[in-house]
């Protein structure tokens, strides 16, 4: 469903992604773990070209984008295949909850307003926010704002959802609610997801496959069982020791 080949990204002199090869099947939930500053966010951002890689090929379904010779049109097609949930929610402060969820459906997908509204209500119901649809973000808790972000990401029905530390700005008591929602998305809705997280127990439970990234490369990957019970690489072992 998604295939990434030899992806490279630098910021000036700093090489951040040093050749990433990666594949996932439809409905697969991939969790990326690894130390801070090692390129996890950059990897997600390159998948949908929020950041532009210098080299590498990204294929999602029938769309193929080669960093060294791609057109704006191809990038746009690639972006339509994915949506992203950010660490800091990234929702519009001057729009209500329902407007936030409707916006990408109307502006990107050109869906009719009434239909967009119906869908928005459906997704807001799934994240338990039907009673807040006319509120502005400033009147919501962090966890509620993140649920708006998740509803918005789902509403465009993307083939691939990218989630960058979706619970890391939340107070501990709000984390479980978000993890429940993501678990439900994975199990019932069979969405393909790539999730960066430091919640190891959640990673263990939700992932079909865990990827350990360090220093701009995928160091090791495997089932949760393989990675958590029997890591092969020294760096993976050292990283996981911190969480025991
Ligand atoms: P992670 O998500 O694993 O913590 P990031 O992908 O955010 O790591 O960052 C990897 C490295 O790239 C870090 O050294 C970070 O400072 C650097 N970096 C990320 N984004 C930018 C940017 N827009 N400009 C310059 N450096 C960046
Ligand atoms: Mg990050």
TrEMBL record:
It is found in: Cell membrane. Pfam families: ABC_tran. Gene3D superfamilies: P-loop containing nucleotide triphosphate hydrolases. GO terms for cellular component: plasma membrane. Residues 2-240 form the ABC transporter domain. One of its GO terms (molecular function) is ATP binding. SUPFAM superfamilies: P-loop containing nucleoside triphosphate hydrolases. The keyword Protease does not apply. It is a peripheral membrane protein. Keywords: ATP-binding, Cell membrane, Membrane, Nucleotide-binding, Transport. This is Amino acid ABC transporter ATP-binding protein. It comes from Dorea formicigenerans.
